[in-house]
Structures are given as C-alpha cells and as structure tokens.
Amino acid sequence: MNIEQMFLNPERLWWLLLIPLLVAAYVYLTRRKNRSGMRFTNTGVLGAVVPVQSQWRRHLAVALTLLSLAALTIAWSRPSGVDRVPRERATIVLVLDVSQSMASTDVKPNRLDAAKDEAKQFVASLPAQYNVALVSLSGNPAARMPPTTDRGQVNRAIDALTLQDSTAIGDAINVAMATLQSAPKAADGSIPPGAIVLLSDGQNTAGRSPTQEAAEAAKAKVPIYTIAYGTENGYVDLDGKREKVPPDKALLQRIASMTNGQAYAAENVGQLDSVYKNIRSEVGYEEVRKEITATWAGYGLAFAVVAALAAVSLGARWP
C-alpha cells in the first residue's frame, strides 16, 4: 500500500518535517539555558527567588506538545483506513475432489462422505443472497451445479457426487472460472465478486498446469481458498494394490498464495468444519477504505490536553 492510498492529501505530510526542527531548537535552547545558569554561584539565593522546575515534567510537556502537533498534521492529511463490512452478494464456487483417493477411510466414514456433509453445512452457513456453484474435481472436472441461491439444489448436487478416476486440479480451476462467469448479473450489469473454494486430497495427475490456471484466476482477481484434505497416512486399495494418498499441501499452498487466497489443511471432520468457518468469514466480508481523520484528530486533542496539564504543573509550587 503506497502513501497515496493511505492519505487523501499526502502532500500535507511535508509539514511533519517541522517537528525534528523544533526538537533541535528545543535541545539547543535547553543547553544554552544550562550554560547561562552556571553564572550564578549562590544557588541558595537563586532557589529562593526562582522556583525549581522539574526537568522531566518540562521534557514531558514538550514531547506531548510535539506528539499533538504530529497527530494533528496527520489528521489534516486526511488518513484512510480499512474496514471489513459484510458483502451484499457474491458467488462461491465449491470445487470438491471426487478422485478415487477420496475413498480413503482415514477420515470416517470415508473422505468423500465426510467432505459432502461438511460442504452442505458450509453452503447452509453462507448468506442467503449468495450464489453457490458446484464443480467436481477428477480427471474430467465438470460443473455439477451453476450459480444459484437454491440451497436445496446445491445439496442434491453434492449428494450425487460419485468417485471418478484421476485428479486434474488445473482443469478444475478452469471450469470453476468459467462457472463464475455464468453467475447472474446485478441490475446494473455488473458481475458479483467471486471466490473459489477448492478441496483436494491428492496430487495433480492430469490436465492443465494448476499454477498456470491459478495465474489466470489471479489476473481476474478471483481468490482461491484451498483445503488439503486427509492425513499423510491415508491409503486406498486399487486393483489389488495399496496406494498411499497424502494431500499435496505444497501445491495447494502455492495456488492460494498466487491468487491472494488462503491455504488450509484438515485431517479430520472437526478440522474441516473449523476451516469452513474461517473461509466463510473470509468470503463473507470485503475491505472498504474509509477516512479516519476524526480518530487522529482525537489523538491530537488527547496529547494536547495532557501537555497542557504538564505545563500547568510546571508553574505550580508543590508542598
């Protein structure tokens, strides 16, 4: 984030250069005063005539005054901050792995059935006005449900998922991006913001390059939230041979990083539920910039009040 994004009038920040000049002037005058004070040899008489001032209170008053000046200068420059506000509408494409490795029972009763149940709970937790779409991830990814607000249709599509061969993560991202484009447009013709939630339990074995497709999603500013599902010890028996099926966490992490999404790992149902809650929080809000001049003006006023009290204390004679 550059300075122009943080302040509406960044050119006014140049006035902050006065503060180090004032500090230098204060140090110079303080040292000059101390040298002048050495001319008085009878300190007893001087103490009776001139009240002794607390050095630390004087320094504190000056420091608070300068802080007040800095805060007011920042306020004058009209700073802006980021606020998280609920999205009014969005489209979420849920990509679920249905490759043969999802038959592994390291997650009870098996990865696919547990993933289906948690996916339906996730869909139910999204705001009612959100469109939800479903894409199956296998060697031949396909859109199983176009974007819709009908949660019943989405749930039936999830229940209908069955195991298939291979894992083409890149192709699945490509299908998910095309599915996003079919989302209903707003009254003004704009496409609602979209995000992809991709759950996979294995390594890419076919199709397009996942990172190249992730790069295309990044260009379109579509974040991909990835879930590496299952344990390192998961296995399936295929054609009489036992195959280990650990999730490819490194690849999914790279996809999420490239698209400004988040990467998660879930080894059981409880962790998957927690992951979906985190994702819901991420996709359910958007960052909106707002001016926070009043906040910095308040800081300046607070520093000024404390500085004034410190200045008053300098002139008071304490018993």
UniProtKB/TrEMBL annotation:
Q: Which domain of life is it from?
A: Bacteria
- SMART domains recorded: VWA (SM00327)
Provide this UniProt record's keywords sorted from A to Z.
Cell membrane, Membrane, Transmembrane, Transmembrane helix
The transmembrane segments are: 12-29, 296-316
- Which SUPFAM superfamilies does the UniProt entry name for this protein? vWA-like (SSF53300)
Domain (VWFA) spans 91-279
Coiled-coil positions? none
Name the UniProt record assigns to this protein: VWFA domain-containing protein
Q: What is the lineage of its organism?
A: Bacteria, Bacillati, Actinomycetota, Actinomycetes, Propionibacteriales
